[in-house]
Design brief:
alpha/beta, Rossmann fold, 3 domains, seven-stranded mixed sheet, 36% helix, 18 helices, 503 residues, Aminopeptidase, 20 strands, seven-stranded parallel sheet
């Protein structure tokens, strides 16, 4: 199958062990992207039930053989796609080795991450938990991090909703969702507890066909036939929105469902059922949007009962939390995320910082005939002096050598940004074999954006001979502005500027 550069391939799995969270996030992302891109979902032999959950956003489905050898899985994925595609990985098996195999095959790569457990080789990492310091990530120079609720991955039905404004202080209807996997059978435990509270009239359970404890839940419902307990299987987005509007209280772990509850505006009890939920729980606590029950797995029924009774008798506790929920999600994440993918899809290049062993390559480029002709010092550079200068600059905190590669991993050119006296100067050169491929604008944009990320107060300056119209146009297209004509080493030159305010 030969795909094209507008293809996005979501590699994700779900099961009774891993739950549905990864798939739900990918569905949310696909909804944001489907009008612009062709969407593929790649899964290991998914059931028809699983396919039914994402078929509305998928143009095509890639069926992968079942294997726990994820090196083999990566190879299977590569066989059925093209390296013109953008691959999105969401799952806890897609570690650094898996990513590296994908990247070394020339793909553009996006990773959805909530673990921060391994080195990231992806072009883009998205983690919608709030308050994470970028320094926690081990990553490549080319890896861009998009962190926080500005990039929240929620389905359209929840992003577009007019939030619930009910002032009802009587809690009689409760919603419980403990995840599709629910390995520790929390749905059963919390439902059984709620049944002991006489004022509770309805308990709504969101359960999945992959739940390993469905029989015990059905038995509990049978025994308590005098109570209104409703199981909602494979509920649609809009149905879930309507349900959340009707209930008075929701109980769920810190997952995408908890964010969906916040989007609707629901009295919410939350906590942890797995370690990977810790970042999102911290986000919910930070915004003061939940009553935090801590580790939901460890609470005894008596403690659960005591805490819920107390909340039911003091419903005004939730009033401030609901107001905070309203402020937490701005609804603009789809446009932000779409722009990320648009930029990535048109990208032809990746980069890394130069190393000492690149000195010979830089020497070759520096003495290129065209490079010397456009330089202010047109004398040929001597090798020993070049190596000494290169190694010295590598040690400078304010100097960055950006070495760019195409999808074939061929070095195509470089950008140097260096503080010289009071000015931060930028320069660019492209390998003679790779000129004419429109690389210059992308190189300048990526290098300047990276530099300004680390030195946000800097103003990057480009000096370009007025006769060099081609270079002038490249810099203008890359966002350099505020031009003036100056004398530079006896040459009439453009002086162009770029900073965070104009990038």
């Amino acid at each position: 199958m030969k795909l094209n550069s507008n293809n996005i391939v979501f590699r994700v799995d779900c099961s009774s062990q891993t739950g549905m969270g990864h798939l739900v996030r990918c569905i949310a992302l696909a909804e944001m992207l489907k009008e612009t891109f062709t969407i593929y979902f790649a899964l290991q032999e998914p059931s028809q039930s699983i396919i039914s959950k994402f078929i509305h956003v998928a143009n095509h489905i890639i069926i992968l053989p079942v294997t726990r050898d994820y090196k083999l899985d990566a190879e299977n994925l590569i066989k059925q796609t093209s390296n013109d595609d953008t691959i999105v990985l969401d799952g806890y098996f897609f570690d650094a080795d898996y990513q590296l195999k994908i990247k070394n095959s020339g793909y553009k790569l996006v990773c959805i991450d909530d673990l921060i457990s391994w080195h990231q080789f992806a072009d883009v990492v998205i983690n919608h938990a709030e308050g994470i310091d970028e320094s926690r990530y081990l990553k490549e120079e080319h890896t861009n991090l998009y962190l926080g609720l500005k990039y929240v991955m929620l389905r359209n039905a929840f992003l577009k909703i007019k939030q619930n404004v009910s002032n009802n202080t009587i809690i009689t209807k409760v919603f419980i969702s403990m995840g599709a996997a629910d390995i520790t059978n929390l749905t059963y435990r919390y439902t059984k507890t709620l049944l002991q509270i006489k004022t509770i009239e309805e308990v709504h359970l969101m359960v999945s066909s992959v739940n390993p404890h469905i029989n015990s839940i059905e038995e509990l419902i049978k025994i308590n036939s005098n109570k209104k307990i409703i199981c909602h299987f494979d509920i649609s987005d809009n149905e879930l929105v309507d349900l959340l509007k009707r209930v008075d209280l929701a109980i769920c772990p810190a997952s995408n469902v908890s964010l969906e509850c916040c989007a609707v505006g629901v009295n919410l009890i939350s906590g942890l059922t797995a370690d990977n939920q810790a970042q999102l729980l911290n986000t919910l606590i930070k915004f003061n949007t939940i009553v935090n029950f801590g580790n939901l797995n460890e609470l005894e029924e008596s403690i659960i009962l005591e805490r819920i009774k107390k909340l039911i008798n003091s419903p005004l506790v939730f009033e401030e939390l609901r107001l905070n929920q309203k402020q937490m999600i701005d609804g603009d994440s789809p446009s932000r995320i779409l722009n990320i993918f648009k930029e990535l899809s048109t990208s032809k290049l990746s980069f890394r910082f130069a190393k000492a062993e690149d000195a010979d390559l830089y020497y070759e480029w520096a003495n290129d005939e065209l490079v010397r002709a456009n330089s202010y010092n047109q004398d040929k550079i001597e090798y020993t002096g070049h190596v000494d200068w290169f190694n010295r600059k590598l040690k400078s905190i304010y100097c960055r050598f950006y070495l760019f590669f195409n999808n074939k991993k061929e070095p195509v050119g470089q950008v140097r940004i260096d503080k010289q006296g009071d000015e931060v100067i930028i320069g660019i050169s492209i390998d003679s074999k790779h000129r004419g491929n429109s690389y210059g604008v992308e190189m300048l944009k990526k290098a300047s954006a990276n530099y300004l990320h680390y030195f946000s107060e800097a103003e990057i300056i480009a000096y370009i001979k007025c006769e060099n119209n081609a270079s002038y146009r490249i810099f203008i297209d890359a966002g350099f502005r505020n031009e003036e004509i100056v004398d530079m080493n006896g040459f009439k030159s453009y002086k162009l500027h770029k900073s965070t305010s104009c990038s």
